[in-house]
Amino acid sequence: MDAALRPYDLGSTQWYVLWHLANFGPTVQRDLGRTLELERATLSGIVATLVRKNLVEQTSNGEDQRQRVLTLTVAGEALWRELPDLSFIHEAAFGGIDEADLATTVRVLQLATERLQNLLRKD
User: Fold this and answer.
1) Which of 10, 19, 39, 48 has the lowest tally of Cβ within 10 angstroms?
2) Closest CA relative to residue 19, chosen from 106, 104, 99, 10
3) What does the radius of gyration of the chain's CA atoms come to, in whole angstroms?
4) Where does residue 32 rank: exposed (0-12), middle (13-18), buried (19+ CB within 10 A)?
5) C-alpha span between 102 and 94 (Å, rounded)
6) Cα-flanking dihedrals φ and ψ of residue 65, to 5°?
7) What is the mean pLDDT of residues 65-74?
8) What is the average per-residue pLDDT within 97-123?
């Protein structure tokens, strides 16, 4: 994935933020962090980079001035249309694997992640 994105000066996590905004529209930054399961500091750095590249706009939420809403800029939308289709990665990794096996794997990994997150919260 990183090799396919390198010519566009994007990393995989930057791509994921752009993907979310392109597919779901403007999003509150805090909600995006939860959705993508990114630490606040990590997401802040990624957003700052995308804003500096003029791919994402960060504005105040009208209801709560502390909240930041992220939106693709015109340049971000143009870049998104230019990016290569990365669905080949999913096919290469999971093609031919039984859907029930994939569903079980996802459930187990989600449970393991949740348990680890709960363990970290206890500290």
Assistant:
1) 39
2) 10
3) 17
4) buried
5) 8
6) -60, -20
7) 90
8) 90
